[in-house]
Amino acid sequence: MVFAANGEWGLGPTFVADRCSHCHLRGGRGAPPEFDDEQLLSMVVRVSVDGSDEFGGPKPHPHYGVQLQNRALQGQSFEYDYTGSPVPHEADLYLSWTETTVVLADGESVNLRAPQARIDKLAFGPLGDRSMTSLRIAPPVFGLGLLEAVEEETVLAIAQWQKSIGYSGRPNYVRDDISKRTRLGRFGWKANQPSLRQQVAAAAIADMGVTSDVYIEQNCPPIQTVCQMQIPGGTRELIDVDWDQFEFWLRGLGVPARRNVADAQFVRGERLFNQAHCAVCHVPELTTAQAFQEFPTLANQTIRPYTDLLLHDMGEALADGRPDFKAGPRDWRTAPLWGLGLSKAVNGSTSLLHDG
Ligand code: HEC
Ligand code: HEC
After folding, report:
1. Is the N-terminal amide bond of 13 cis, ω within 30° of 0?
2. CA of 99 to the centre of ligand 2 (A)
3. Radius of gyration, alpha carbons of the chain
4. If you measure from the C-alpha of residue 307 to the centroid of ligand 2, how many angstroms do you get, rounded to a whole number?
5. Pocket test for ligand 1, best of 3, 9, 15, 20 (most atoms within 8 A of CB)
6. If you take atom 20 of ligand 2, which residue's CA is the nearest one?
7. 31 lines ligand 1 (CB under 6 A)
8. Hey, how many other C-beta atoms are within 10 angstroms of the C-beta on 356?
9. 65: exposed, middle or buried (Cβ count in 10 Å: 0-12, 13-18, 19+)
10. Which one, of 159, 139, 153, lies nearest residue 199 by Cα?
11. CA 169 to CA 166: how far, in whole Å?
12. Which one of 57, 271, 275, 311 is most buried, counting C-beta atoms within 10 A?
């Protein structure tokens, strides 16, 4: 499966990357650009305006939709016979960093850096005062079938237990565009996607400009007339057989085994992790549903994802200021920690948190 440049597999008209693996390199996490003048590739900038859509989700920006597309087709295509002019991309996207020094309790001082998206050359006017943006890096994509197979009741029981000890994890409830219902959100940094199947179609349209049965319109708001003329929406570019295979692959992609579990250093680390209450949110052990028809081998498994799939208020320093269904402006889903120690070996990136 290749989303080659210039329109094969329905790429564009506008997009951020031309294949899943540019962002989820080897199934691992994305990386921020190395240089100031390097455009974002494995990171996206969500955008929306005040209020919410009819299902309680983010309200698309009238000129830019729900995500800024920093790349676009250059006027040729393998699959589509057109000789249009190049499509304008929506903006140039870069990162800037601010550093702060934090003094720890024992007097040691450390430098922390935080990224901000730098949005240049907006092609269709300023974003305006009522708009909100959210910078997000590509998370790793293994073990997700197991997280999909965890029962909603299990997640809700953790929320109840947390409440009883003074923590306040909350589930996100989001629109399932496939079943047209409200469902528990599980995937994405704010748990804003209910299923891997929908996550695939949402990534296809938002990150690559690939339409599907569920998101049939191209990503071209009315003001983007060249975009609209190039490749009309209304035709399905992600065909079912590929969609099925994406879903199957994501569901099956396994988790690396824990390593060095008997090491003294590991044992001490695990004890500290529990003592410091990290394990309240990063729940070390879950059991998947007794039955999971969609992928039976994922049923009834003991897993060690180190997540509760719940949202937590992570404070002002991590806030993006942009709500996403029930997730507030400071809320994030507890990131699963399994496989974290191998991040560097997978693709070199050790960039953490929603914004890397
Ligand atoms: C431009 C970069 C980019 C491309 C291309 C991209 N993704 Fe992603 N992906 C992301 C980002 C960023 C997120 C987090 C989104 C959020 O938090 O809302 C994400 C989230 C996901 C998740 C959820 C992971 C989790 O732990 O919750 C899955 C699964 C996924 N992508 C699969 C895919 C597939 C399959 C494709 C190709 C069809 C794809 N992505 C293409 C950047 C990308
Ligand atoms: C109140 C719940 C909560 C507690 C307690 C908590 N975390 Fe987290 N953790 C989160 C959330 C939510 C995120 C995601 C934040 C984001 O994306 O910005 C996160 C992210 C992380 C990440 C980054 C993972 C990644 O893939 O980027 C690491 C590492 C981590 N936590 C370790 C810890 C450790 C170690 C402790 C204890 C000292 C701890 N956490 C305590 C909720 C919690």
Report:
1. yes
2. 20
3. 21
4. 9
5. 20
6. 335
7. no
8. 21
9. buried
10. 139
11. 10
12. 311
Ligand 2 centroid – CA 346 distance (Å) = 21
For residues 83 and 230, the answer to whether their CB atoms sit within 8 Å is no
* CA atoms of 114 and 106, how far apart (whole Å): 23
CB 178 within 8 A of CB 197: yes
Residue type, 301: Q
Residues in the chain, total: 356
CA distances (Å), origin 241, targets 1, 176, 200, 217: 11, 21, 13, 20
Residue 80 in tokens = 């589509």
Q: Is 287 exposed, middle or buried (0-12, 13-18, 19+ CB in 10 A)?
A: middle
- Contact predicate 332/310, CB 8 Å: no
The amino acid that residue 247 corresponds to is: E
> Residue holding tokens 């003094």?
103
Per-residue pLDDT of the chain (356 residues; tens, 9 = 90+): 344 443 457 888 999 999 999 999 999 999 999 999 999 999 999 999 999 999 999 999 999 999 999 999 876 554 444 455 688 999 999 999 999 999 999 999 999 999 999 999 999 999 999 999 999 999 999 999 999 999 999 999 999 999 999 999 999 999 999 999 999 999 999 999 999 999 999 999 999 999 999 999 999 999 999 888 877 677 889 999 999 999 999 999 999 999 999 999 999 999 999 999 999 999 999 999 999 999 999 999 999 999 999 999 999 999 999 999 999 999 999 999 999 999 999 999 999 999 99
Contact at 8 Å (CB) between 98 and 116? Answer: yes
